[in-house]
Amino acid sequence: MRQVYVIGIGITTFARLEYPLCEIAAYPAMMAMKDCGLSGVDHLYVANMGGGRVNHQTGLASAVVDSLSLTPAGAETIENGPASGASAIKQGFLAVASGLHDVVMVIGAERMREVNNLEVTDFIATLTHPLAEYIYGVTLPSLAGMFTRLYMDKYGVTARHLAMVAVKNQNNALLNDFAHLHQEITIEGIIDSPEALTNNPYVAEPLRFFDCCPVSDGGACVILASGDVAKRLDKPLVRLAGLGQATDTHTIHERQEPTDLLAVRRAAGQTFQMAGIKPADVDVAELHDAFTILEIVESEEVGFFNKGEGHLALERGETSLTGELPINPSGGLKGRGHPVGATGVAQAHEIVLQLRGDAGRRQVMDARIGFTCNFGGFGNNVVCLTFIRES
Amino acid sequence: MSVDLEKILRPVDNPMPPFPPKYMTIASGEEMVIRQVSRDEIPDILPYIESLMHVERDFYDIVAARVYAELMAYYRHRVQDEYVLVAQIDGEIGAVVNGRMVNADVGMSLHTLALRRGLRIGAHAFAAKMEYHIDIMKQKEVLIVAESPIGFRRWMIEYNLEKRFDTPHELGGVPSWALTRELFDRARETLVVGRRPVPDKLLEKAYAAILPPSDPPTPPEDLLAATRSRYDSTGTALMAQRWRQEGKV
Amino acid sequence: MAREIYAYKCRKCGHLHYPYRMVCKNCRANEHNEFDPVPLPKKGKLLTFIHLYSLPPDFEVPKLGLGIIELENGIKITGQIKILDPKIGMAVKGEVEIVRREGYDEHYGMVFYQV
């Protein structure tokens, strides 16, 4: 297999966007093309989860490829729940690595706020098992809530630890122009204040309002290319060095060990093995913190910290922007926002930005190896990527 | 002669106990004061509401238009027994809520308008209103309606309000819901929040002036963007406009 | 006639599954639809639970109790719980009732009560 490099990136602001889905997908693509100076690509993948159901637009990739005037290049829409973005990058990698194409564009886009919040909750709930979970009124926050309760019981994670993740990520997002939330929050306001229960009410007790990511619209794009193309450009060489993917049972009650995220562990293991590195080699990571508990658990399952000790590392400040292993410098899903199809690509966008040294005020010093973890469903389909700067 | 006419046109207000101000720490760590405003402070608030009439999303336009009318009616003595409360953060306006005392037993909740979002300020302001009707005015129930789905979920569903569909609400005659004293007592923990008395310094700052909101909801640059996006598949390139303006592209 | 929730027993190897899957997780050697329905036991132990306040549109209640229960025969199930003060490890007993209404459709599922 050939080596694959990221040569161009682009992103929209994540917010409530008053544009059609197609434009939310096309705009970052135009930025990415400008970034690498190319005017055409060989193939296009578009990651999107809700196009058909929420935006009345199926076959999104076919619409976008024409909107960008990239026809007759081939195009496919990739849907893998909230892991659509990383899955699309994986397909792009395979296309270039196999030698089939030289330059492939990968876009992730979502426009969730076209409908009201009750419909969005239902849309996300369609990820659950129709007979064993959905009919009970199970939504994704409720799965996260049940998981959180077990974690609190077994490893001593408290509401305070969850709030620390929320505060860290929302405050990181203040430094990110593309982020959805630009609001400072404090532990005092969401946990300690006598009014904390109104400021931070229960959504799926024990999970609270500020433990859940916002509903966002947005798009991101990365352009992958072979070594020959990449080396001709005047930019730091960032290689997509490893991929990993694993699945687990659809229902969460059938998981082998209820407090484990085995799919994360396996996917991360695969990506590190392929890239030839160890977890300790990673300089910066973007984890999937749709719910704050997930950042803590994923940091353990991928191997950054021992199982059950992620919240202790958080307490010590190791995962803050100035710590040993900054996690979610962009604000993560909590602060940057979570347009489900776009997130995987947005995570890659942030890592490439960091490795290139272009992250401005949230730059992690000397970042050379970056890692992303994109979670589909609730831990039943996980895709992890590793990026290495070569120059 | 004009004095006599005004006597006829102006309703006579029934005595209403004043709302004792309270304060709370919000999610950002800042302290917020909720207090009643008097008629002469209304002109200060009106401009902040006016700009919201052009924000189409989340029903801001209709709520702002109605609040503007209700505040104007209060100011110009053309409505009976209305009260207006504001939430202020460091003097800056965060939310406006209003309502009416229909009679000794029944209150009518009019509107809750948040001018700073993302911190659950509307929730605090709404709770203060309910406390005012039930605990302070000692009424038996409050009639409530919601213009937006957000309001519906936060109030009708969360507080398990009783349907009063045969009683039209003053806001356009739509079917109302009621928060009875019993429902209020059951939800007391979430409806009576905040602390009294307000520390002197905080109170002084709040009464000194009602400062403009620093981060209010704003309309998109192209007023048609919200509706055009549905019919115009090429979109309005709003984003490109803004980025060019900011020199990012 | 009392309603039941069924687990599915592979005719080749006897492994019990809930919910249904096409290929037996244990032997992977079953023929198409070669499973026997086995009613789930009703008694079990509460493994984890939540109270959900942010509800889907067709539920008109302010909060909903949901939990994962380990039944007597080792099968785990997600269900609604109507328990005032739930605790991890509590003994519970299930009833099959209507758990959700979508328009004119009625969905039946397990609701667990304290023993």
Short description:
Chain A has 391 residues and is of the alpha/beta class. Chain A has 15 helices and eleven strands.
| Main CATH class of the domain at 4-116 and 215-231 in chain A | Alpha Beta
How many beta-strand segments of chain A?
11
CATH architecture of the domain at 4-116 and 215-231 in chain A: 3-Layer(aba) Sandwich
What would the principal axes of the Cα set say about the shape of chain A?
globular
| Radius of gyration of chain A, CA atoms, in whole angstroms | 19 Å
Helical content class of chain A = 25-40%
Return the CATH topology of the domain at 4-116 and 215-231 in chain A. Peroxisomal Thiolase, Chain A, domain 1
Runs of chain A in which pLDDT lies below 50 for 5 or more consecutive residues are none
* Widest sheet: strand ordering of chain C: 4-5-6-8-7
Our estimate of the beta-strand percent of chain A is 15-25%
How are the SSEs ordered, and which strands pair?
The complex is a heterotrimer of chains A (391), B (249) and C (115).
Chain A: E1 4-11, H1 21-36, E2 43-47, H2 51-54, H3 60-67, E3 74-78, H4 84-97, E4 103-111, H5 117-125, H6 140-155, H7 159-173, H8 187-192, H9 196-199, E5 202-205, E6 207-208, E7 217-226, H10 227-231, E8 238-247, H11 262-275, E9 284-286, H12 292-301, H13 310-315, H14 332-336, H15 343-356, E10 369-376, E11 381-389
Parallel strand pairs in A: 2-3, 2-4, 9-10
Antiparallel strand pairs in A: 1-7, 1-8, 4-7, 5-6, 8-11, 10-11
Helix pairs in contact in A: 1-3, 4-15, 7-12
Chain B: H1 2-9, E1 22-25, E2 31-36, H2 42-52, H3 60-75, E3 82-89, E4 92-101, E5 106-114, H4 121-136, E6 141-144, H5 149-157, E7 162-168, E8 175-180, H6 181-186, H7 188-191, H8 200-208, H9 225-231, H10 238-245
Parallel strand pairs in B: 5-6
Antiparallel strand pairs in B: 1-2, 2-3, 3-4, 4-5, 6-8, 7-8
Chain C: E1 6-10, E2 16-17, E3 35-39, E4 43-52, E5 64-71, E6 76-81, E7 91-102, E8 105-114
Parallel strand pairs in C: 6-8
Antiparallel strand pairs in C: 1-2, 1-3, 4-5, 4-7, 5-6, 7-8
What does this structure look like?
The complex is a heterotrimer of chains A (391), B (249) and C (115). With 391 residues, chain A is an alpha/beta fold. In chain A, 37% of the residues lie in helices and 19% in strands. In chain A, a hairpin with a 4-residue loop joins strand 10 (369-376) and strand 11. The radius of gyration of chain B is 20 Å and the shape is globular. Chain B is α+β, with helices and mostly antiparallel strands and 249 residues long. In chain B, helix 2 (42-52) packs antiparallel against helix 3 (60-75). Chain B folds into two domains: 10-218, Gcn5-related N-acetyltransferase (GNAT) (Aminopeptidase, 3-Layer(aba) Sandwich), CATH 3.40.630; 220-249, no CATH class. With 115 residues, chain C is mainly β. Chain C is 0% helix and 50% strand. Chain C is built from no helices and eight strands. Chain C has a five-stranded mixed barrel with strand order 4-5-6-8-7. A three-stranded antiparallel sheet of chain C has the order 2-1-3, with no helix packed on it. In chain C, a hairpin with a 2-residue loop joins strand 7 (91-102) and strand 8. The interface between A and B is large, with 34 and 37 residues. Strand 5 (202-205) of chain A pairs antiparallel with strand 4 of chain C, so a sheet runs across the interface.
